[in-house]
Amino acid sequence: MKIVGKSDIGKVRVTNQDSFKIVKINKLYLCVVCDGMGGVAGGSTASNAASEEFVCSMALKINKAGQSGSDYEKMLIESVDAANKKVYEMSGENAELSGMGTTLCALLTDGKKVWASSVGDSRIYAFAKGGIYQVSHDHSYVQALIDNGTITADESKTHPNKNIITRAVGTQPTVECDTFVFDFDASGYLICSDGLTNYISDGELNEIFLQNNEAEEVADEYIRRANEKGGGDNITVIVIKK
């Protein structure tokens, strides 16, 4: 299993407000992507603080539990709560950071099982049997419209409010995250910010994954292609490939 993470400022933004981390804790790999919001200072502060607090919380919990077959799903929920508390408190302490927040997508794996969590519209994808499917569910205004049948998925791509998210880490005292638990039965996974998915379709993501053998090649091509198509946002990817 190969894991590669990369982040690019894109072609329009003056700062990179995305953050990612890949760490090994005992025999587990933990990957997290955050996409911050809240102005130049707030966005980057929120994403960095959330990813750092989340990883620290997970490491403490996993190390404390040892090899006892722990409830990793519960740990993910508690660590998202810790990240939310950290960002929310920082926002309240500094007027320049008021209202800041961030998405958070995380994946934990031992190579046999996968535990994942998601808040916001950053995404987790799985590649299996030659195809691609989205594991996470966007917490966004346009996704809610898709879910209730108001618009189609194609219409959402050009909707004027497509960047509005309905759930974020740090904007409220508490936050609810989605969690997922499943067998590692795919040929790989992708965790990414919307700076990738706003410019590259799911079909193209799958095509690039299949055409490149190495995880680093996949990550590089994702960023290159998103920039080629406009690069209007920060682009962050973590590619996991068997």
The gyration radius over C-alpha positions equals 17 Å
Shape: globular
Q: Which percent bin holds the helix content?
A: 25-40%
State the end-to-end distance. 4 Å
Sketch the major β-sheet.
6 strands, antiparallel
Counted by DSSP, the helix tally is 7
CATH fold assignment? Phosphatase 2c, domain 1
Q: Output the CATH class name.
A: Alpha Beta
Question: Which H/E pattern describes the elements?
Answer: EEEHHEEEEEHHEEHHHE
Strand fraction equals 25-35%
DSSP strand count: 11
Mean pLDDT: 94
- Write down the domain tally: 1
Any overview of this molecule?
- This protein is α+β, with helices and mostly antiparallel strands and 242 residues long.
- It has one domain (2-241): PPM-type phosphatase domain (Phosphatase 2c, domain 1, 4-Layer Sandwich), CATH 3.60.40.
- It has seven helices and eleven strands.
- Strands 2, 3, 4, 5, 6 and 9 form a six-stranded antiparallel beta sheet that branches.
- A hairpin with a 2-residue loop joins strand 2 and strand 3 (28-37).
- Helix 1 (39-65) runs antiparallel to helix 2 and helix 6 (202-211) crosses helix 7.
- It starts with a strand and ends with a strand.
- The model has no long low-confidence stretch (mean pLDDT 94).
